[in-house]
Amino acid sequence: MISVKNLQKHFEGNTHVLKGVNVEINKGDVICVIGPSGSGKSTFLRCLNMLEKPTGGQIIFEGDDLTSKKVDLNLHRQKMGMVFQQFNLFPHMTVLENMTCAPVLLKKMTKEQAEAKALELLDRVGLKDRASSYPNQLSGGQKQRVAIVRALCMEPDVMLFDEPTSALDPEMVGEVLDVMKELAREGMTMVVVTHEMGFAREVSNRVLFLDGGVIAEEGSPEQIFGNPQTERLQSFLAKVL
Amino acid sequence: MNQWFSQLQSTFIDSGLAPLLLEGFRNTMIITLGALLIGLIIGSLIAVVKYFSEDTPALKPLSTLCDIYVTVIRGIPVVVLLLIFFFVILASASGISVAILTFGINSGAYMAELIRSGIGAVDPGQMEAGRSLGLSKLQSMRKIIMPQAIRYILPAIGNEFIALLKETSVAGYVAIVDLTRAGNLIRNNTYDAVNPLLCVALTYLILVILFTRLQKVLERRLAKSDKR
User: Fold this and answer.
1) Model pTM score
2) What residues 189-218 of chain B have any CB closer than 8 A to a CB of chain A?
3) What is the C-alpha to C-alpha distance for residues B16 and B26, in angstroms, rounded to an integer?
4) I need a labelling partner for A181 at 20 to 30 A (CA). Which of A33, A235, B27, B41 fits?
5) pLDDT at B228
6) Residue A229 three-state SS
7) Rounded Cα gap, residues B17 and B27, in angstroms
């Protein structure tokens, strides 16, 4: 579904964040990306939907090279949902408007269809009664659940999560992870940058350990957590587990 | 007291000059509102060009042009600008339209900065969220960034409007009968300096107070979604 080939990212000031990342992401994969801070995890994820422009390499999504100038990024982004660490809900819109804004504006659905879809999704994450609330009336966990269903409302083929629980109070992490687990069970293709090792171990089918701008180790959660090969991964796991 | 009333009577009524004040008031309002509109249009255009030129190399020349415009306009006193437009560039146009254009062009340079900083005050994550949903940069701007930026911009626009209203008092330099010039003409004709100028000053003051009220109401309405 997505194949990443020799992905490179230089930032100005010559910091080389990604030094050639190669990954195949298949339909139905739930991939967790772990690694120390500054290893390029978030940059890698943000390159997948071109929020960050790679300085080298290719990202092939459903047959189209997103790094090519000719490709219509907006069209492809409609099929790639993204959830941010800081939620990024639109504060001037109600929960329902947050969700229906893009599908209606992009003529993917009529207003009625979008609202029906949004309410159904909200119901699934237990927030149907908050449809007419504004984001600042919600708790962090509720905001992030809304952010997830906002992305789902576009009926994406893949969901990208950028540290979705890092900005949450500890007691709210569970409710967001539950929604993500549910999503994974339903077969959604997901790429999750996370520090929640428990989630990575339980839900993912593949774990990428990113360190120093390259994938230092890659494998099933059993391999990565049970039998880490490289010294770097061993020392990382010793620190976080 | 009675003496003051009879003085008012002779200055404004007996002299037949009261309508001049009305005409002045009308012209001041026309110039201010017209200039505000032009200023808003120019300011928004520049702000949007500057915003988009950050990652669209094709807009760079246009953006440089905008920079020059803002620098030049902000560096010249508005009276000088008015004289140049009236006597040099648009010598054959009517005074009022020259004034509207001049004050509009002048105000546009300031508005550009106000609007730009308002847009800049919106969390960049908002644009990213919009883009991640597949909205174009322009769609995100319209639906997500601008509605939020307005809340930062509005108070500054209000101040700019007040400044503009008072700035138009120099329109008399190019023979336009605005509020200030009307007062001054009456003073000239009646040898009563106190009352015409007092009347003019009070009119400006009341206008500013009324407008400030209106601005507060608008701001409260825009802050609706901030309420808990």
Assistant:
1) 0.84
2) none
3) 18
4) A235
5) 42
6) coil
7) 16
